[in-house]
Write a structure and sequence with these properties.
- The complex is a heterodimer.
- By secondary structure, chain A is mainly α.
- Chain A has one domain: MetI-like (MetI-like fold), CATH 1.10.3720.
- Chain A is built from 11 helices and no strands.
- Chain A has helices at residues 5-23, 25-28, 61-97, 99-113, 117-128, 135-149, 152-165, 169-176, 181-217, 229-238, 247-274.
- Chain A is elongated and about 75 Å long.
- By secondary structure, chain B is mainly alpha-helical.
- Classes of the chains: A mainly alpha, B mainly alpha.
- The interface between A and B is large, with 46 and 57 residues.
């Protein structure tokens, strides 16, 4: 596997830094993320010990952004895991079964591609989750829904790989030895597909982060008082008025989102190019 | 060709029916009702309101009535959020801004994305390629509301050269459509570039060069045409991105379009307005997918349209 060194190294370094921020958030933060101080509303960066300023409730933006790394990364990683589980299993079964089952399963994927899923996500999040709902429940539904919407391309990629891989000798040998289909799929085929699965997963994470930010903007993402970057930036956008822009509230969370997404995209592209398949999935349908 | 199209149109109607059914029951299954926000209303008034919208009748009857009105009269019902207005009227009023916004955004995306991607891919690894690729990578990494806020602050509030909100006259179209179009331009540029890089390595390009064809012609005529195929095939998802993106962009720039109605009506449990917007969005999306498939088949004779 040939990897374009500089981009992969740069993006890995960025991602490690962001992950470290998330892991050591309690040690790095100067305040608690939900701590309000109504005497310190909308302080610009640097004033009264608030490195990046404060928001409407006087909460410290620096600490909220650092804790936001935790929330954003966790949501994105967990939702990606959900999409991975569904997509990989679906693709494995479809590709290995072949024939009519395969074409039926892939036809279903084609139909699902043309459905407006993000609207379904918005509907589910608005309808079933009142703002009074338990925050943990909201986050759980958010993860499941975001993951459940993103598995289609993964299923296609895995299925395509299984189709070519299942004719290889080691699969035939396993079959000849009487190994069952489930064991062949998960013990023999899956390990040989990890490369491409991880590559595409690396490209799924930024997509999900972007959608989480999008939902947060509509007030449907991670609930108060937990800060995700999307939520912080969205709150910042709402705080813009013709009189005062409160620029720091938008700038710093947005910078974190953009840097992280940039690093993830770079890493995914680098890995995909290393596999010499082009940016994975870019020619399948999917934006 | 005609057969496949009619097949697809049949599927289109079927899909819409399924979407209508699913969202109908999804909405009714959700907790809360359209009149929950008005607290302490006299039960008699509440009952009268519910009777007016047919909400007192059993669910299957409500469903059948809705579908009958929808299919026979193309009537989407009355809105509970805006008294005295039908959903048809609301949609008729708010669809044009959304369509103009989406159309302009798509136009920006294509007019910027394809040339930039072609320039980058024509000489991959060159200085221009690296600059454009980096720009595109940043473009796909910026959430659209962040871009919107940035443009709004710079051009609207600081320089004061463009209106920051509303939908009146071409000047007010600029910021929303640029916000919606730029991230998509980045996606399209990346796709075009990938296709271009792939094409430039093909034998036909080498032959064209060997014949002494000018480089400009090689790139414009031979390589670009084939590398546009992946772009055409993403037109469907791109339309989806425009539609969902417009929900956010319309909120930022206070555009009186469909997206604002979609979110608000879901929050207010305005059943018929949610249904109306969902159905309209789905119809637009599926149509776009169909058009992109047909275009693809027209451009590349090897591709057959799936019936």
């Amino acid at each position: 596997m040939r990897i374009r060194r500089p981009t992969v190294l740069l993006s890995s370094a960025l991602l490690i830094a962001v992950s470290a921020t998330a892991i050591f958030a309690p040690a790095l933060a100067t305040h608690h993320f939900a701590e309000q101080d109504l005497s310190a509303q909308y302080l610009p960066p640097g004033e009264r010990g608030h490195l990046l300023g404060t928001d409407l409730q006087g909460r410290d933006l620096f600490s909220r952004t650092i804790y936001g790394a935790r929330v954003s990364l966790l949501v994105a990683a967990a939702a990606t895991l959900v999409s991975l589980l569904i997509g990989v299993t679906y693709g494995l079964i479809s590709g290995y079964a072949g024939g009519r089952v395969d074409s039926l399963m892939m036809r279903a994927v084609d139909v699902l591609y043309s459905l407006p899923f993000l609207f379904l996500v918005i509907l589910i999040m608005t309808l079933f989750l009142s703002p009074r709902a338990e925050p943990a429940a909201r986050v759980l539904v958010l993860l499941l829904v975001l993951g459940a919407v993103q598995w289609l391309t993964m299923a296609r990629i895995v299925r395509g790989q299984v189709l070519s891989e299942k004719t290889r000798e080691y699969v035939q040998a396993a079959r000849a030895l009487g190994v069952g289909p489930v064991r062949i799929l998960f013990r023999h085929l899956l390990p040989n597909l990890t490369g491409i699965i991880l590559t595409y997963a690396a490209l799924t994470v930024p997509r999900i982060m972007l959608q989480e930010a999008f939902l947060s903007f509509l007030g449907l993402g991670v609930p108060e008082p937990y800060p995700s970057w999307g939520r912080l930036a969205a709150d910042g956008v709402r705080a813009i008025t013709p009189v005062a822009s409160h620029w720091w509230l938008v700038l710093f969370p947005s910078l974190m989102i953009t840097i992280t997404l940039f690093a993830l995209n770079l890493l995914g592209d680098g890995l995909a190019r290393g596999r010499r398949t082009g940016p994975a999935g870019s020619r399948k349908r999917g934006i | 060709m005609i057969r496949t199209v009619s097949h697809r149109l049949g599927g289109f109607v079927l899909t819409l029916l399924v979407i209508a059914t699913v969202s109908f029951f999804l909405l009714r299954a959700a907790p809360g009702g359209p009149f929950d926000a008005e607290r302490d209303v006299d039960p008699a008034i509440r009952a009268a309101q519910e009777r007016k919208f047919g909400l007192d009748r059993p669910l299957p009857i409500q469903y059948l009535t809705y579908m009958r009105d929808l299919l026979l009269k193309a009537d989407l019902g009355p809105s509970s959020q805006y008294p005295g207005m039908s959903v048809n009227e609301i949609i008729a009023a708010s669809l044009p801004p959304s369509l103009v916004l989406g159309g302009l955004a798509l136009l920006i995306a294509l007019c910027l994305g394809i040339p930039l991607g072609a320039v980058a891919g024509a000489r991959s690894g060159g200085r221009r390629d690296r600059a454009i690729s980096a720009l595109a990578a940043v473009g796909v990494s910026i959430p659209n509301f962040v871009l919107g806020a940035l443009l709004l602050t710079v051009f609207g509030l600081s320089l004061r050269i463009l209106p920051v909100a509303g939908w009146s006259g071409p000047a007010s179209f600029v910021l929303p459509s640029v916000t919606l179009g730029l991230p998509m331009a980045a996606v399209i540029a990346r796709l075009t570039r990938t296709g271009m890089v792939e094409m430039m390595g093909q034998d036909c390009i080498r032959t064209a060069r060997a014949k002494g064809m000018p480089e400009r012609r090689v790139v414009m005529i031979h390589a670009l045409r084939s590398s546009l195929l992946p772009v055409v095939s993403t037109l469907g998802p791109a339309a989806a991105a425009v539609l969902t993106g417009s929900v956010v962009v319309e909120q930022i720039f206070a555009v009186p379009g469909l997206g604002t109605h979609f979110v608000n009506s879901a929050l207010n449990r305005d059943y018929s307005l949610v249904m109306g917007t969902v159905l309209l969005y789905s119809a637009l999306l599926i149509l776009f997918n169909l058009v992109s498939d047909l275009l693809l088949a027209a451009l590349d004779p090897r591709i057959e349209v799936v019936p």
